[in-house]
Each structure stands twice: as structure tokens, then as C-alpha cells.
């Protein structure tokens, strides 16, 4: 009875170990790897998919963003199934040696899966380039034009502002000259010729 119980435990432990071996290894789906090319382009490599894996590479270089996408079935490669993380790290190491991560990389080849079927190769399917986002530059231009318009309006207002003070001074001068003329007329009518100046002065004072 004891030998039977011991044999039963051995069988259970063996099945547990076999179950652990049959568990799938951790997938690399959704993993992101950052690297820099030979010319110091800052790049990001991301993977998605299960059997057919899609690899996307995005890089920034001197105000320009370029990208490329690859598709393949690396699970066909036995070494990839054993450790996918090493597979992607080897691809990143190969891309670090290039001045441009998306040029001259129509097919990504590494020594890890050199003997695998051709379906395991990651083949480039798309590539592109996008300029740096100019939203901030547009906003700054709009702010500059708005400030210039505001300055133009204020300058126009300053120019069109009527010169009130000079007009007041002019009217005062005109009134003064009219008073002097009337005072002189009265002085000529009521004073001797030799006292015209004195009389006009006195009359002008009284007339304000």
C-alpha cells in the first residue's frame, strides 16, 4: 500500500513538471525596444500579433520622423519560440549598426534564425517620412499677426485722434485778435489820435 502511494506521488510530480514544460513562454507582443542608430537617430521598435507578427520602427532625426513596418512569421523559427526576447534584441543590435533604420532593410536577417524557413523572415511592407509637427509654429505666427494687427489699430487711433488743444489755442488767438480790432475801432472813435494805443489797451481790458 505504501509503495502504491509512493508511486502515485511520483506520477503526480512528473505530470506537474511536464505541465510546466508545456506552458507557452512569455510572448513579446506589445513589447517596446528603444535604440539609436549609427547617426544617433532616436528610434522605437514595437511588435504586435501572434502567429504573423507586425514590427513597426519609428525614428526621429533632425526635426523629421521616419518609420517603416515589417511582417513575418518568426514563430516558424525554433530559436524564436524558445526565447523571443533575444530574437528582437538581436534585430535591434543589427539596426544600431545602420545610419538609417529603414533604408537598405527590406529584409531583417539575424544569425539566430539563419536556417529557418523564409516565412520566418521579417519583410518590409511600408515606409514613410513625416515632417515635425508645425502646430506650435502656426500658433506663434497667429499670435504675432494678432499683436501686429493690434499695434496697427492703436497707431491708427493715435493718428486719427483730433488735435483738440491746438484748436482751442487757435480760437483763443482769434478771439483775442477780434477784441483788439474792436478796441482799436472804439479808441479811434472816442479818443484823440495820440491816445489811440492807450485807449485801445484800456478798452481791451474792460472787454475781457
Descriptive notes:
- By secondary structure, the protein is α+β, with helices and mostly antiparallel strands.
- It has 6 helices and 6 strands; from the N terminus they run H-E-E-E-E-H-H-E-E-H-H-H.
- It has helices at residues 2-22, 78-82, 84-96, 135-160, 164-190, 196-206, and strands at 32-36, 42-48, 53-61, 64-72, 107-108, 122-131.
- The protein has a 6-stranded antiparallel β-sheet with strand order 1-2-3-4-6-5, with helices on one face.
- A hairpin with a 2-residue loop joins strand 3 and strand 4 (64-72).
- The longest helix has 27 residues, at 164-190.
- It is rod-shaped, with a radius of gyration of 48 Å.
- The chain starts with a helix and ends with a helix.
- Mean pLDDT is 74; it is low at 4-13, 16-27 and 165-173.
